[in-house]
């Protein structure tokens, strides 16, 4: 698909348009930067940046999110929110409205051990962050890719802990969701955008 034909919709909630509480904003995409070291087989560097043709006018329902600082730690043990219009279960239906679930963030060794317990010898890279429950219960799913895994800070702002990348099925026991870790990719994002420091978080 040509970059000029890509459109970003901001402030969307109801894809059917039946109960849209606010007016979404549409923006054309000027440039797409896919991470040059993306590996499809392993999902390494599963990340891209979209540059819009014009600035975004923020509203109460269209607000920026901060990139986390390395000083914020690895977030292990904290519950994060993940949102999207992806399937509600493995091979399940797709919702018309935006869904949100809370999932606990775990350490990478714990994530590896969970997958191993489920019969999958999966390599969990430093650039990954995992979130989910040992019993399954809640998860991101197919169609949520690229969506935010986020935490609310004490100052009321939100940090983007990760972006939805991949997993095995959805909400199955010992198979948590895998996300791209934003503290790992912050230097790359700063290089691509030319923006750094306080402006990003």
Automatic annotation (TrEMBL):
GO molecular function: serine-type endopeptidase activity
Domain Peptidase S1: start-end pairs: 1-194
Alphabetic keyword roster: Disulfide bond
Keyword Disulfide bond: yes
GO biological process, one term: proteolysis
UniProt-listed InterPro entries: Peptidase_S1_PA, Peptidase_S1_PA_chymotrypsin, Peptidase_S1A, Trypsin_dom, TRYPSIN_SER
Keyword Disulfide bond among record annotations: yes
Gene3D superfamilies: Trypsin-like serine proteases (2.40.10.10)
Any one Pfam family match given in the protein's UniProt record, by short name: Trypsin
PROSITE patterns hit by this protein: TRYPSIN_DOM, TRYPSIN_SER
SUPFAM superfamilies from the UniProt entry: Trypsin-like serine proteases (SSF50494)
Source taxon at top rank: Eukaryota
Family: Belongs to the peptidase S1 family. CLIP subfamily.
Protein name: Peptidase S1 domain-containing protein
Provenance organism: Daphnia galeata
